[in-house]
Sequence to fold (437 residues):
Amino acid sequence: MKILVVGTGAREHAICSALADEATIYSVMGNRNPGISRLAREFTVAPEVDTEGVVRFASEKGVDMAFIGPEAPLEAGLVDALEEAGIPSVGPTRDAARIETDKSFMRKLFEDYRIPGSITYRVFSDPEELREFMEDFDSEAVVKPVGLTGGKGVKIVGEHLRDNMEALKYATEVIEKRIGGHPSVVIEERVVGEEFTVQAFSDGEHIVPMPAVQDHPHAYEGDQGPITGGMGSYSDSDELLPFLTQKDYEDAVEIMQRTVDAIRKETGPYRGILYGQFMLSADGPKLIEYNARFGDPEAMNVLPLLESSMLEICEGIVDGNLKSASFMNLATVCKYLVPEGYPESGVAGAEIKVDEKKIEDMGVITYYAAVNQEDDHIYTSSSRALALVAPADDIYSAEELCEEATAHVKGRLYHRRDIGTRELVEKRIKHMEDLRS
Ligand code: GLY
Fold:
């Protein structure tokens, strides 16, 4: 079986690793990722959103199936183009991917199909209507451009914005400057709680959920500093998180199943990975947003634990015949090493040295992200460089292992030492206990 994996990052490195023993990998990537290039039979360094170019490469190589890692090619209609060329894909069509690429579509789906876990929201394209609404809005606001912004467009009162008047100013700018590609903006109530992620395989009818994960979007320790693509994440050995009960998890999965049922009726089957980002509030899980793909870093917490055949899962997704998936009962901690200055001005072109052998001997996994391999040398780009993932019996042992492994990476990089530490995890538990009491 020949599989084309589209995408460049650590997430795609993890997808390729999960498939590598069972399939022959072909890759289209935006820069030369040393991990993917090593696993691929053939690769091309080319734009992932050039649908014609990707389909041509896939057809020339005679691939049987494609797996689309990031959201941008989904929005560009890559899955539709591959299907026209007779190549089935793990990834939703452009229409079904609107669950991520069009936030107003997502919220309306919740309303129309009465899916639980929704929050108060309104969509605006008229700045005057927006102003009138905001003057009376009595919750703290979250401002979301309707379209994709690479994770940088969402601004929250209390985090990035002082108050609702500053939110109004930013929301007006989103409409007028078409931030995210649409002249409209979503205003939501801010939900207080703990964030968590559930990812699920979906064949359009059934979903198979994966263990819950918690990501850390802030750049600096103690959840300080600018928002990034994610500095690291952890998962627990029982598919839950230390602050997340079985019922919370099942409620989140139910929300995702109901969403997949609704998408099927609106656009046709959703085939691929559905990523639900939830806020666990005092009233249970609330859906913050969906992604139409694996999370990055969350993919790296779950894929190394997969015991079932990834190839069979992919075949089940595209055939509409998905069965089940089992994961090892281990906890994981993932830490991203990122260039100095990231996310605003990450130092690019700096050489890094990774002692993969020492890292592997410790039982830790290296996933390369936005780096460039030239001959035997690896250089940073301005984005996240590589992720280290440690599996262990519990979160704190995984954290210690992961932290020790960072000593085997040299270069102008930094990482968050606090991800997965007892101190930070206990803070999350206490936060939820306080909210629920
Ligand atoms: N972890 C955030 C994302 O994948 O978008």
